[in-house]
Specification:
By secondary structure, this protein is α+β, with helices and mostly antiparallel strands. Helix content is 46%, strand content 17%. The protein is built from ten helices and nine strands. The strands form two sheets. It has a five-stranded antiparallel beta sheet. The longest helix is centred in the middle third of the chain and has 26 residues. The N terminus is likely disordered.
């Protein structure tokens, strides 16, 4: 008898969906006592569900004790986890929260944390069922990026259903605190090296619409104007240097032509680049770059 089933998420099939996304995925791991884990080198979420054993999470020179049946969020790009006993846990990485997930966190409002480095919640029955089903998927070799993106949203739905607003506020506070700081740094580090808002949003792991909202919350001004302002500030520094090569500056800042460069300077510096350089020489206001 022929088998007519479609193996859309089987690793032996040719389904394009069967590709591990580095932006959103779940993984189950086991470690021996004494093992130190610091795999969550991500600018986004690292969410741990402890299945068995005990561990210590080191953050900023302090150690927080965690045990089986608990879950917690790890601050982005920080800390390490050490197994005090044989350890098993499921972890969830997301550098691309969906709009529903971002909305869930933003709905909690501007809340203050309790000064804790790590907020821990016990797994209730629904969350235990969610984790158990995921472990079955993973043990059976299911590794579909679309499934994991759906599971990300399901996780946030369950969180809203199972825990109070106060519990969620404390739980997500660390995420919002560190995420905002990391996002701000990513934006500031890359804003002068991109050609569009879409490119900057992609670098930061957001859709364009979600990125614009997150940007507005951090900087409280339209992103396009902010980027142009940063570009103008940097341009002032370059034009105020001891040695100024206008051709190099035009190339460095991505201006399409000398005319485009001059037009930008007139709008943002109030004068042509040549006039700006002359005024800097007259006032002696040079910047050593």
């Amino acid at each position: 008898m022929s088998d007519d089933r479609v193996y859309c998420c089987n690793k032996e099939a040719t389904c394009n969906n069967y590709e591990r996304s580095e932006l959103v995925f779940f993984e189950q791991v086991k470690f021996e006592k004494g093992f130190v884990w610091e795999k969550w080198k991500t600018s986004g979420i690292c969410w741990i569900f402890l299945l068995s054993g005990e561990a210590g999470v080191s953050i900023e020179d302090e150690v927080v004790f965690v045990e089986a049946g608990e879950m917690f969020l790890l601050p982005a790009l920080k800390g390490k986890l050490k197994a005090f006993t044989p350890l098993e846990f499921l972890y969830f990485i997301s550098d691309r929260p969906t709009e529903y997930c971002l909305k869930t966190v933003s709905e909690l409002g501007c809340l203050e944390g309790r000064g804790e480095l790590l907020e821990i919640l016990p797994l209730n029955q629904l969350l235990k069922g969610f984790v158990e089903m995921l472990t079955v998927y993973l043990e059976d070799g299911v590794d579909c990026r679309y499934l994991f993106e759906e599971k990300q949203e399901e996780l946030f739905v369950l969180m809203k259903s199972c825990y109070s607003k106060e519990q969620l506020s404390y739980f997500f506070y660390t995420l919002s605190l560190h995420k905002e700081g990391d996002l701000k740094k990513l934006i500031e580090d890359n804003c002068l090296h991109v050609k569009s808002v879409a490119e900057l949003a992609q670098i930061c792991g957001y859709s364009v619409s979600s990125f614009k909202r997150a940007f507005k919350e951090i900087f409280d001004e339209p992103i396009y104007q902010w980027i142009l302002g940063k570009k103008a500030d940097r341009l002032k520094e370059r034009l105020s240097g001891e040695e100024v090569n206008l051709k190099e500056i035009i190339y460095e800042f991505g201006f399409s032509s000398p005319a485009h460069f001059t037009k930008f300077c007139k709008k943002w510096l109030g004068m042509t680049p040549t006039k700006f350089i002359e005024e800097q020489k007259m006032t002696g206001e040079h910047i050593d770059l």
